[in-house]
Amino acid sequence: MITQAEQRRAQQRAAELLQKTGLAFRPDELASIEVADFGLSELETTGAEIQTLVDTGRLVVKLLTLFPDQTLPEHIHPRLDSYEGKEETIRCEWGELFLYGPGEPTPEPGGRPPAHRRQWYTVWHEYRLHPGEQVTLQPNTPHWFQGGPMGAVIWSITTRAADLQDVFTDPQVARQTMILE
Amino acid sequence: MITQAEQRRAQQRAAELLQKTGLAFRPDELASIEVADFGLSELETTGAEIQTLVDTGRLVVKLLTLFPDQTLPEHIHPRLDSYEGKEETIRCEWGELFLYGPGEPTPEPGGRPPAHRRQWYTVWHEYRLHPGEQVTLQPNTPHWFQGGPMGAVIWSITTRAADLQDVFTDPQVARQTMILE
């Protein structure tokens, strides 16, 4: 959970990074950034700031802001009975992103998950994404990512969302964020 | 058809407009802009410059550049036997776009299709899109659009592409562009 004051502060920091990209936003978009702490109440180290630009029911385009060293924890987009699963393209727009998926573990990776949660990070093949670089992740692929030293603004372009069905490796993670009144 | 010299000139003009947006591109993206004349050999008035950023087979994200007054002719994305049809979100990133779809015709519309092709423009409900503004078009919806006085850079975010199945109102239009050697 986060307090309303923490939420407002994170929204404002994210809006400042988003505006560094030069992208065009409507004022209502900048005023409605979702702050996600993944249920861990450690927003500085585990979390993401999410602005959904398009969500039609068939596809979703979001901009995710990661503060420096802020980590979006390892998870998969599962195949569901009636749905072949969410495919996600991550494209870096600003800053630097450390993205990890299955494959040969990268020696001396740039990303460092929170030490006390290290056990829940099981994939270590690194993609360092700089502006304009992108990776597409198929359904059921474990992945996690972290903002680089300046943070990162990244596109998440996916087939239809089923965020609440995402499966996180860390059993303490919950997709919904409680906001304290 | 267009000549290779026309193609190169249009690619360069489009790259200049794309770079005004501040968006991050890889050099290989700026070097591979598609120039489409829709088979009419009148690129200045009917055409579009297309940069595909993501095409996974399940969804497509493109940036379209329209020069001032350049028109992308009226068409639909049909429902196909095995496919419910392409849904398209148009979001303006830079400049101004005159977009037309079904509905009450707008008096004194800003867009002016090429006069000799005027008969093939049948929908006149206007959406004037400025940066950050967007419209989602369902399959089978006739639509056309034109760059404003400065031109436009717009996002086209769609479910899976079936461009060669698009149905144009003007029978002279062809989706493929012949490039003269």
Write a structural description.
- The structure is a homodimer of 181-residue chains.
- Chain A is mainly β and 181 residues long.
- Chain A is built from two helices and eleven strands, in the order βααββββββββββ.
- Chain A has helices at 4-20, 27-30, and strands spanning 2-3, 34-36, 48-55, 59-66, 71-76, 88-101, 125-129, 134-137, 143-159, 167-168, 179-180.
- In chain A, the strands form two sheets. In chain A, strands 2, 3, 4, 5, 6, 7, 8, 9 and 10 form a nine-stranded antiparallel beta sheet that branches.
- In chain A, a hairpin with a 3-residue loop joins strand 3 and strand 4.
- Chain A is globular, with a radius of gyration of 15 Å.
- The N and C termini of chain A lie close together (10 Å).
What is the structure about, briefly put?
Chain A is mostly beta strands and 181 residues long. In chain A, 12% of the residues lie in helices and 39% in strands.
Low-confidence stretches of chain A: none
Largest interface by residue count?
A: A-B, 27 and 27 residues
User: What's the average pLDDT of chain A?
Assistant: 94
Structural class of chain A: mainly beta
Strand tally of chain A: 11
**Oligomeric nature of the chains:** homodimer
Rg from alpha-carbon coordinates of chain A: 15 Å
Largest pleated sheet of chain A: 9 strands, antiparallel
- Number of helical segments with 4 or more residues of chain A: 2
As a percent range, the share of strand residues of chain A is: 35-45%
Instruction: Sketch the topology of chain A as an H/E string, one letter per element.
Output: EHHEEEEEEEEEE
What does the overall shape of chain A look like? Answer: globular
Classify the helix fraction of chain A into a percent range: 10-25%
* Ends apart, CA distance between termini of chain A: 10 Å
